Predict the structure of Peptide/h+ symporter protein.
Amino acid sequence: MSSFPVEKKEDNALAPVASIDDEKLGHRTESGEDHSIIEGSEGVTQHDLDTLRHVADRLPYTAWLVVIVEFAERWTYYGTTNIFNNYIRAPLPRFSTTGAVIAADRAEGIAGALGKGQQISFSIRTFNSFFVYVTPFLGGIIADTMWGRYTTILVFSIVCLIGHVILVASASPASLAHPDTAMGLLILSIVVIGVGAGAIKANVSPMIAEQYTGKLRKVTLPSGETVIMSPAVTIQSIYLWFYAAINFGSCGAISASFVARDHGYWVAYLIPTGIFCLVPLALIAGKKNYVITPPRGSILLETVRVIGMALGPRWSINPLRTIRAIKAKDFWDPAKPSYYEEGKVPTKITWDDEFVGEVSRTLNACNVFLFFPFFWLCYSQIDGNLGTVAAGMTLNGSPNDLIQNLNPISIIIMIPIFDKIIYPLLRKRGINFTPIKRIYAGFLVAGLAMVYSAVLQVYINKTSPCHDNEPSACTKADGTPNPSPLNVWIVSGPYILVGLSEIFASITSLEYAFTKAPKRMRSVVMAFSQFQTALSSALNFALVAVNVEQKFVWLFGSFAVTAWIVGTIFFFTFRDLDRRELELNAIGQGNRKGFAGEKEATT
């Protein structure tokens, strides 16, 4: 079923002839069919909505331009961060000044540069992940209150480009000759790139969906079947392909692994820097045709004031009393203008009742995202720890950090299958695979990936000549690698399973953040959704002591159990939201203007 918002109409007595006004108000036939016109649709009735198959509409070409922006930005991001683990952890290979492995050692050799070890590598990579998912708040606030999404993305793409130039400099032979200098430049580049990439990330997700402005309507296919062109299904499709762009970009790390091993890190970082130039070019190319949402003023300030006015009378020293008051049905009433007598509305109330409703329902819906840090804990293992696992296995000429690219490759393969086959088949059979159910499935599959990883590490410890004493660093007397006989491609299982879990959970979270946010707050709500990855990284910081190979079995196993338990709690906590899907999708969809001087989106 579609999740497109509809408004229930009161039944009216049948008249011999239905007037236009009757049709707008809605009426039922003698058989009980509801033929009221869905508000905002192009002649679609409630009966049509309930009985016809829902399909996705065509995407405008400006949406594909935004896809190019995301593809180039993600290629640049993953093409650099996916090789951070070896760059920081492993020392320079024999006879190398750039991190490249000499031809004679490439069968089992591993590229490296700074030689700081697993724990420092993990700490820096975790900080990078934390920072790049905190800065979306900066981009969201600037876009929603000052510049708008388009200008924000354009300005911060320049910031991001500067960061990548610094990263290339950090990996030059002159810098690597002084590891402390190289480390300082690396951290500086991480900070600058994090500011740029985070600000882009908060805005590009809602911007792509805003390019679609179609309405609910009936269409007759060449086969003769009449179907519903559903904006809700279209948005779902948009985010599937948007996520595909992310993972096409992630595949840039495939070449980066080989380039780093064969030619050194400065070359490996220079290539994505050049590709990033596509971002401003794609933005400028579609400037005249983009649907551009202008900044909406002090939305965040107004939101804080609404929450403060509602919470003020309910606050108590007794926390249980405060919680009960917050859950009360009339909790938001003191923040509504209609709560006060005419002429006695507080001067600081500059909003209407509907905006209070938007704040209320958005906060309720966004509670969904608070469970995601535990999902991202599982995902974080494919970022580096599983690369370390692979380093202790027989490579046969494959760089150990190459295998992680199976994650985006598997997502790229599975997305068209889900978009064109699985999801349409479920809708055709009347199976409503709702967002909460999809996210729960993502938690379950992520836990399964961690079980696979734990079992694999057990076998590596058994078969490695060094057993559980850092198999990734096991060497022979001459200093060459001495790995476990297990083939490195066995580690592909967790990467593929995590990819499947992302289709269920991560893509759905993007869709959920867009459809549940008022138009005026989409960048900030998207930033809040992505902030859960930063919280996951903060949890990882607390686990630095156990992020060592000797404890990988217990680490992976505990993450599996955590994902299953948290996912189950998530499902039983929020399954009611699936039944309220239509209502929640209606948040902030009205055409009214909530604040003085507010403008609608323009093209």
DSSP finds 25 helices and five strands in the chain. The CA atoms of residues 133 and 382 lie 17 Å apart. The longest helix spans residues 179-210.
